[in-house]
Amino acid sequence: MTFWAQKHRPGWWKNAVLYQIYPKSFQDANGDGIGDLPGITARLDYLQTLGVDALWLSPIFASPQVDNGYDISDYRAVDPMFGTLDDLRALIRAADARGIGIVLDLVLNHTSDQHRWFQEAKKSKDNPCHDYYIWRDGTPDAPPNGMKATFGGPAWTWVPELGQYYFHQFAPQQPDLNWENPAVRRALYDMINFWIAEGVAGFRLDVIDQIAKEPDNGITANGPRLMEFLRELNRETFGGKDLVTVGEAWGADLARARQYSAPDGSVFSMVFQFEQMVLDQDGSKWKARPWALPELKASIAKWQQGLHGAGWNSLFWNNHDLPRIVSRWGDDGAHRADSAKALAVVLHGLQGTPYIYQGEELGMTNAPFGPQDWRDLESLNAYRELCQTGTPPPQALAAVQRMARDNARTPMQWTAGPNAGFTTGTPWMRVNPNYTAINAEAALADPGSVFYTYQKLIALRKANPVFAAGDFTLLCPGDTQVFAYLRRGGGQTMLVAANLSGRPAAFALPADFAAVPPALATQGAPTPGTLRPWEAALWLLPGEA
Ligand code: TEU
Ligand code: CA
After folding, report:
1. Would you say 236 and 194 are in contact if contact means Cβ atoms under 8 Å apart?
2. Buried/exposed code over 411-433 (b: 16+ C-beta within 10 A; e: otherwise)
3. With a cut of 50, which residues of the chain have pLDDT below it?
4. Which uninterrupted H or E stretch holds 259?
5. Burial grade of 457 (CB within 10 A; 0-12, 13-18, 19 or more)
6. What is the pLDDT of residue 1?
7. Measured between alpha carbons, how far is 336 from 344 in angstroms, rounded to an integer?
8. What pLDDT, on a 0 to 100 scale, did the predictor assign at position 4?
9. Which family does it belong to (predicted)?
10. How many other C-beta atoms can be found within 10 angstroms of the C-beta atom of residue 401?
């Protein structure tokens, strides 16, 4: 059976679990120290053992790698560092044979400044590609406004030959595309249809709510034509083809998310929204904000209830932009594995499509690195700016270490051998030194490992309709240790309870569940009335009591 025969039917992604791969750090097959497509193909058996249904690959297209591939210079070419188009075709075929789809990462908001379009655009104001980007006349010392770019510095860069600035929300090497220009939209749609014809299972769409913007008014997302553009994108490409599509929408609120994931399939399958993932940040990711568990529970409850029957949630703790959850909100010390399992149980019991980020299933942690080891321009720029604006270097280091995207980008830890089995060469980025204890080989050999908790959660989702169909009722909303909730639907009732703290917690099991053993328990049979530190369990009952 294959992905397209076995799983590919309308709404398949509502019962699916997706796995995000950061190709540069997953598996190197040719010894150059950089992860590649043949390396992913070589690890498909591992991913099939885990039980995932599709793999989201961070960009593998031609790129100068200023932003590790999120700066694309040719949308239709596989970057030689990752391999060839034939390597990608081989991966798609080999994954399909295992019932796994391949999801590509589309960066439609901007290109690399090395893209042919931009190289043409900056030649002259009347070049046919000039208006593929956003230009403003000006003088060298007076940008159109004071907008700042996400990675630091101004969002406008001066081109003396043209006497103009161009707009970039990210690095200067990532000029924003002008979606107001129908030629841009047409060229992007044609490219997407090229990849659909190659047999991909879907797309992740980078900062997709930022394609409609008003730079003159400081508006960088959710511009007035956004829904018009997104519905046209759907109609002209993946609409009606049962592909999974997930838009990254940092600016999404519940109302917008309902539009993006409308059950009529007019836009996307779902979006990544980040409300629950910024609770520990005070405006800037480099400034910590104290928070408590009831805030997280309230946010998740809002999104669960807000999209139930009206849209679809994506479920994630991790991705290539976020620090590793076990270090961020778990315990990467004595209770590392237990806290990783508890966080997994809480997430995977929810309604929506879960995403597992590479290494999350091993309980991989943040890395104790500094500027000499970081490879992300965001981290390096932030550290420099913090130091230049008066933050003492030790505090700047701690602030960036806590949230650096590099934490998620250290090589996947496969074995306790050299370079964690990631490469036989010199890795492009240092391996987290804890690979000798935290690696896939050890996890597969340990029935009690985090890996097998993820494998069990994936299997339970596939065997029990309540995961995809059930509603959501939060229990003990004010409890600062326990995250517990009920799901009812699909002819079943499910209870999930987790102690997300390092101290024992009181938890009175509702009577209906006291008579049945848990379907999953991370620390053996729970003791009635209490939950051990970082203990989680999941109960299933027939009927929708
Ligand atoms: O990220 C969107 C984005 O804005 C993030 O960079 C976020 O602001 C930042 O990570 C907060 O720490 C997407 C991609 O996921 C990211 O890797 C790219 O760098 C970015 O877009 C530009 O393409
Ligand atoms: Ca390689």
Report:
1. no
2. bbbbeeeebbbbbeeebbbbbbe
3. none
4. helix 254-260
5. buried
6. 55
7. 12
8. 78
9. Belongs to the glycosyl hydrolase 13 family.
10. 20
Q: DSSP H helical segments within 177-250, as ranges?
A: 182-197, 226-236
Q: What string of DSSP letters covers 125-160?
A: TTSTTGGGB-EEE-BTTB-SS-PBPTTSSBSEEEET
The closest ligand to the CA of 56 turns out to be 1
Q: Map tokens 């592909």 to a residue.
A: 243
Residue 277 beta carbon below 6 angstroms from any ligand 1 atom: no
- Measured distance CA(409)–CA(83) in Å, rounded: 19
Q: Which atom of ligand 1 is nearest to the CA of 169?
A: 22
Q: Is 468 helix (H, G, I), strand (E, B) or coil?
A: helix
Q: Which atom of ligand 1 is nearest to the CA of 71?
A: 23
Q: Any residues with CB less than 8 A from the CB of 452 and at least 6 apart, and which?
A: 443, 446
Percent of the chain with pLDDT over 90: 98
| Residue with CA at minimum distance from ligand 1 atom 7 | 321
515: Cα separation from own chain's centroid: 38
**pTM score:** 0.98
d(Cα 350, Cα 343) in Å, to the nearest integer? 12
Place of tokens 């039917």: 9
Query: Is 248 a residue of the active site?
Result: yes
Identity of the amino acid at 371: P
The single-letter code of the amino acid at 411 is P
Instruction: Specify the residue with its C-alpha closest to ligand 1, atom 5.
Output: 321
Dmax (CA) for the chain in angstroms is: 77
Least distant ligand from the CA of 405: 1
Report the run of H or E that residue 452 belongs to, with start and end: helix 450-463
Distance CA 219, CA 118 (A): 23
Cβ atoms of 269 and 312 within 8 Å: the answer is: yes
Q: CA 255 to CA 276: how far, in whole Å?
A: 16
